[in-house]
Amino acid sequence: MKTLTASTLTLFLAFAAQAQPPGGPPPSLADSFMNGLDTNRDGRVDKAEFLRPYETRFQSMDTNGDGAIDRAEIEAVEKQVRERMEQMRQQQGGR
User: Fold this and answer.
1) H/E stretch holding 68
2) pTM of the predicted protein model
């Protein structure tokens, strides 16, 4: 349950970051949630809409397409994340 909660918070923060207009006030968490997940724009987020980002992420991580994520696939994702973080650090002047 803690993993799902942390993952959900991560999704919310990602939606908030994407939805924030430059120079404007940040959107509320509710606005970010609805804008990011309510894909049919009916004013509600059903279970399928809520789970879609997780399913998409699962599919991208399951690189061999066997329906499971193994340690090697997780390590590959970790390597990609570390490389992206290093690139961002270098772009920001090595901070």
Assistant:
1) none
2) 0.57
* Number of domains comprising the chain: 2
Same structural domain, 2 and 36: yes
Note whether 49 and 7 are same-domain residues: yes
Structural domain range at position 93: 70-95
- Could you read off the pLDDT tens digit of each residue along the chain, which spans 95 residues? 455 555 665 665 565 555 555 677 888 999 999 999 999 999 999 999 999 999 999 999 999 999 999 999 999 999 999 999 999 999 988 65
